[in-house]
Amino acid sequence: MANTPSTMLPLGTTAPEFSLRDTITGKTFDLQTLKGTKGTLIMFICNHCPFVKHVNPELKRLGEEYQEKGIGIVAISSNDVANYPQDGPDLMKETAKKEGYSFPYLYDKTQQVAADYQAACTPDFFLFDRKMNLVYRGQLDDSRPGNGIALTGNDIRNALNALLEGNEIDPHQKPSIGCNIKWKKA
């Protein structure tokens, strides 16, 4: 298991635009269609990463709790499926159904979206305000596979709640830790 940290895209960065296919519905969505009225959470995940498998229950809860509060939530997989076929679109759809995702699970075939967001690991979280400026990037919480710390989503929940309440989000944020994005070989 790799322990790759987030690159920590600078706060205030405007969300890069994208248009990707949702593996659940087969429809193509762009960022403007998916953004929430109060904010947007973009998560880079994949199917096979043990870090993502560990946080899947919390990802489901985030979707159930925050989408109805005006937060657009999107999951994106950008891994090289030639070398990691378990992360391919058909299996992404199966994973989304099995885990009960209430949000789109998009496939970044070219890996351009991951590059634009400077995503480094799975999971990697990016929270944008209603103007699509980055207000949080980093970890879900301190829980990792095998470390014995309960999965709560505290870090991302604190940021989401502050955003919804109009409060300042603490700029001192911990990077996420996970498996590295599986980049295609040039």
Kindly describe this structure.
The chain is α+β, with helices and mostly antiparallel strands and 186 residues long. The chain has one domain (4-180): Glutaredoxin (3-Layer(aba) Sandwich). Helices cover 27% and strands 23% of the residues. The protein contains 5 helices and 10 strands, in the order E-E-E-H-E-H-E-H-E-H-E-E-E-H-E. It is globular, with a radius of gyration of 15 Å. The mean pLDDT is 96.
Topology summary:
Elements: E1 4-5, E2 19-22, E3 28-30, H1 31-34, E4 39-44, H2 50-66, E5 71-77, H3 89-99, E6 105-107, H4 112-117, E7 121-122, E8 124-129, E9 134-138, H5 154-165, E10 177-180
Parallel strand pairs: 4-5, 5-6
Antiparallel strand pairs: 1-10, 2-3, 2-6, 4-8, 7-10, 8-9
What keywords describe this structure?
alpha+beta; 10 strands; 5 helices; 186 residues; Glutaredoxin; seven-stranded mixed sheet; three-stranded antiparallel sheet
What is this structure, in a nutshell?
The protein is α+β, with helices and mostly antiparallel strands and 186 residues long.
Please, how many helices? Answer: 5
Number of strands: 10
CATH architecture: 3-Layer(aba) Sandwich
What is the CATH C-level name?
A: Alpha Beta
CATH fold title:
Glutaredoxin
| Total separate domains | 1
- Which structural class is indicated by helix and strand composition? alpha+beta
Radius of gyration: 15 Å
**Between the first and last Cα atoms, what is the distance in angstroms?**
24 Å
